[in-house]
Amino acid sequence: MYAIVDIAGQQFKVEKDKKIYVHRLTGEEGDEISFDKVLLIDNDEKVLVGEPVLSGAMVHAKILGHLKGEKVLVFKKKRRKDFKKLKGHRQYFSQILIEEIVSEGGVLKTPAKKARVKAEDTEAVAEAKIVKKPAVKKAAEKKPAEKKTKAATGETKKAPAKKAAPAKAIKEKEAKPAKEGASKTKAKSTKK
Questions:
Q1: Are 101 and 1 in contact (CB under 8 A)?
Q2: Tell me, what DSSP letter sits at residue 119?
Q3: pLDDT by residue for the chain (192 residues), tens digit each?
Q4: Distance, CA of 21 to CA of 65 (rounded, Å)
Q5: CA angle 92, 29, 88 (to 5 degrees)
Q6: Degrees (nearest 5) of the Cα angle 62, 68, 72?
Q7: Residue closest to 1 by CA, chosen among 38, 51, 56
Q8: How far apart are CA 149 and CA 130, in angstroms?
Q9: Bridge-partner residues for 33, per DSSP?
Q10: What is the three-class DSSP state of 173?
Q11: Cβ atoms 28, 75 nearer than 8 A
């Protein structure tokens, strides 16, 4: 017989006389505690499932001791920035012993219901298979076209033709003779 219990926000599978570690619980060593958030109980062939918890079901346990877990190191680093941090952390735990699992109420889940549902599903699937689909025509096999190479066709790629300068710009250059030395500096300053 086992049960699935919500203890301090975590779900545990518990059995009678089993020791488990949970997050730190309020109470001293030797105190008896009980958990009422039982989600599922399996008693050999009977399975009680809660929606979301079983009403009246409880798990009784005894606190054996409080202790710390193993140290977890947290290392942070940012490359090329000379930044390194190392921190350690030890989680607090409580060790508990499961003494008793009490089951009262809940929804009974039987394998017979599953079998009936499966039989109905198989009938529906069989009916769906009977419906014929329209025949799909097969297309004639196509042969891949042969690739034509440039050498085979005799074509060569030609460079694009240069653009002609605008007629207006040509006339201005012919009309104004360039001054010696000054034209280079003016040309540079006007381009900025």
A1: yes
A2: H
A3: 899 999 999 999 999 999 999 999 999 999 999 999 999 999 888 899 999 999 999 999 999 999 999 999 999 999 999 999 999 999 999 999 999 999 875 444 444 444 444 555 555 555 555 555 566 666 666 777 776 665 566 666 777 777 776 777 666 766 666 555 555 555 555 555
A4: 10
A5: 15
A6: 140
A7: 38
A8: 53
A9: 61
A10: helix
A11: no
Q: What is the pTM of this model?
A: 0.50
HSE of 101, CA atoms in CB hemisphere, 13 A: 21
Specify whether the CB–CB gap between 150 and 156 falls below 8 A.
yes
**Measured between alpha carbons, how far is 60 from 21 in angstroms, rounded to an integer?**
15
Neighbours of 49 (CB within 10 A): 15
In sequence order, the β-bridge partners of residue 3 are: 14, 41
Residue pair 20/29 in contact by the 8 Å Cβ criterion:
no
* Domain extents in the chain: 2-78+85-106
